[in-house]
Design brief:
383 residues; nine-stranded mixed β-sheet; D-Amino Acid Oxidase, Chain A, domain 2; eight-stranded mixed β-sheet; 12 helices; 2 domains; alpha+beta; globular; FAD/NAD(P)-binding domain; binds flavin-adenine dinucleotide
């Protein structure tokens, strides 16, 4: 069978490219090397937070993606919950940033609500009263159940849009013959399509290794953990904290950012790229992270395979300053990895041949922005 489009890689970018192509009426196949997706798109927090992006292209993709997630959820359970995001300030200078961000977003039709300390503690009783001084709440933002969403999206695409999926199929060669592309897997499967899009995440060895080794792609390793289910704790939505206010792009572009006082911030947190986020899963367990360590695409192995417990404990220590839980029993710890571009570019796009497009290195914004970005990418590639 000849497909109109083959998508290589079934993470969130590949999945939404296949969605938008199928909506155009194309016959699409998604080819995934693993038995099921198990990379960044399932290892993440699942926070869909356009408020973390400065106004512009990526913020718009995030808003589009949020609406699309909600509309798919109405038809098919993909584990999206409309429970908002809150940024909790712990110092007066962080609060200044919340106030300035609210003004900027208000002027651009992206509403939010400033919460007093009392309102934060009332809505999020687990938060420590000596941590929070105020909050900024975005009611329209959603959270995804990361371990579930991609699998459910695949099920939805098969059922509603007749997208085909081939798992356990590592693509090792793409031969562009001009009128069609021939796609070869390491286990001797062959697929034919008019065009192919490679959404390979952080795998730079199976396809186009030279292109990737010459690129300015870097890979980030993140430490994550989840508690045992504690459904008696109410911590709904995306919980972002003072260190996030100091880290996210939307805050960095504000005029009051330069006034931030860093003297009381533990340098070990800064050195390990730690900012503490929480996301309570549907079963009541609480996902806690994260940290950031980097290596070039060609030397990703240097990031190692160990979960560094020193980093895990630093995250936990800071988490305990922010919230109070009846039990801190950790059920799982894991590493997540994502590719990103160093420098000004915010995603890696390349056309190795006329009928093949590579899209990867969306960085830490893939769950928020991929659905919107992928629409534009497909519209440009498939006229
Ligand atoms: C710990 C962590 C927390 C995060 N939290 C958030 C968050 O809260 N909000 C947010 O917006 N973003 C978050 N992100 C970022 C987001 O998860 C990523 O940006 C996004 O998942 C990247 O999607 P992707 O499709 O490019 O990559 P991936 O999910 O890595 O998917 C790539 C897929 O391609 C497959 N593949 C690669 N090569 C081949 C080949 N040759 N043949 C066949 N298949 C192939 C791989 O097996 C993989 O399944 C987080 C990331 C991490 C790691």
């Amino acid at each position: 069978m000849k497909y109109d489009l083959a998508v290589i890689g079934s993470g969130v970018i590949g999945t939404f490219h296949s969605y938008h192509a199928a909506l155009k009426g194309l016959k699409v196949i998604v080819i995934e090397k693993d038995l099921f997706p198990q990379e960044a798109s399932v290892r993440n927090f699942g926070q869909v937070v356009p408020s973390g992006f400065d106004l512009g292209r990526w913020h718009s993709y995030g808003r589009y993606s949020t609406d699309l997630y909600k509309s798919i959820q109405e038809k098919f359970d993909i584990g999206i919950r409309n429970n908002g995001s809150v940024y909790i300030a712990s110092t007066p200078d962080e609060l200044d940033l919340l106030i300035e961000l609210k003004e900027r977003f208000d002027a651009n039709d992206y509403p939010s609500e400033l919460l007093t300390k009392e309102q934060v503690l009332e809505r999020y009783p687990a938060v420590n009263s000596d941590y929070a001084i105020a909050g900024l709440y975005f009611s329209q933002e959603v959270s995804a159940e990361s371990r579930k969403m991609i699998h459910q999206l695949h099920a939805y695409l098969k059922e509603a849009h007749q997208v085909d999926f081939a798992y356990t199929s590592p693509v090792v060669e793409i031969n562009d013959k001009g009128n069609e592309v021939e796609i070869q897997t390491s286990n001797s499967k062959k697929f034919i399509a008019s065009r192919a899009i490679v959404c390979n995440g952080r795998d730079f060895r199976l396809l186009y290794p030279t292109i990737f080794s010459e690129s300015n792609i870097i890979v980030c390793k993140l430490n994550m953990m989840v508690t045992k289910p504690i459904p008696e704790v109410q911590l709904q939505g995306n919980i972002l904290t003072g260190l996030t206010i100091r880290r996210y792009e939307s805050f960095k572009s504000l005029s009051s950012y330069k006034n931030l006082d860093w003297s009381n911030i533990d340098p070990r947190l800064v050195d390990n790229g730690i900012h503490v986020l929480f996301k309570q899963r549907i079963d009541g367990s609480i996902v806690i992270g994260d940290s950031h360590h980097y290596a070039a695409a060609a030397t990703t192995d240097e990031l190692g395979f160990d979960v560094d417990l020193t980093v895990t404990n630093l995250i936990l220590e800071e988490a305990k300053n922010i919230i109070d839980l009846p039990s801190w029993e950790i059920a799982q710890v894991w590493n997540g990895f994502y590719a990103q571009i160093s420098g000004e570019e915010e995603i890696f796009e390349c056309f190795p041949t006329n009928n093949v497009k590579i899209v990867t290195a969306i960085g830490g914004k893939g769950m928020t922005a991929s659905a919107g970005y992928s629409k534009e990418s497909i519209d440009q590639f498939i006229l």
